[in-house]
Amino acid sequence: MTDPAQTSDDVESRPPGTQTLSRGLEIVRAVATGATDLKSVCLATGIGRSTAHRLVQLLEQFGYLRSTHGTDYSLGSTLIELGFQALYQSPASTVARPFLEFLSTKYLDTIHLAIEEEGQVLYVDKISGSRGAEMRSRIGYRMPLSQTGIGKALLLDEPNRWESVFDREHQGLNTPNEVRKLFLSRMSKYAKQGSTLDLEENEPGIRCVAAPVHNGSGAIVAAISISAITPYMPAERMKALQPVMQQTALAISRKLGYAGRTFHTDPA
Q: Which domain, by its residues, includes 67?
């Protein structure tokens, strides 16, 4: 029987013989997004209770899930182990880490490394700042592309996506057209400079400067950012940090085989 939570396209796109595996993965994702018992797992996935129960037991056995007396489901230690392995198998993460540590030590602010995953920002590394408020971002956290400085950096080389990404992420929010025009105008400027800004669009009181990381083929594969609360990130400091982040991102890119152009902040 077809899972009612899935569309026909979803089912048809699965390789033959993988239904049990796909259901297990759906359960893991459901727990990751807040399902804490068998009832909520079934509601989130559309999987029958008996099937879900068997799969949960198997996932617990292999350490992908854990529970307390059959409730309070959470992700298991195996996923923690695999998550760190995935993080450090990423060339960008491995190469970038010393540069992130240098930025953190020198500037005392929060440093991020992110990639684009499923049309969103996915934070893959973070070093918290030593002053000001702690930010809600964390490794594994997802955020919109158009509302974050680091997300804008990930989009810099794809102007054909700017409008569609903005429209998708603001769908149903009654966002004024002036805001849309301002976003597109700023993106055009950022693309020429090679760095982006977050002027509190994502989180009130938080500003950041970000820059893209390229691989050997020239594609943007990651982005880095430096973030701080507004008192520590006035306009003058943001301007001064743009070439810093550009050059740091370029140094990481060079380590990944990038041989493309450099950028220069517009002095005006």
A: 8-80
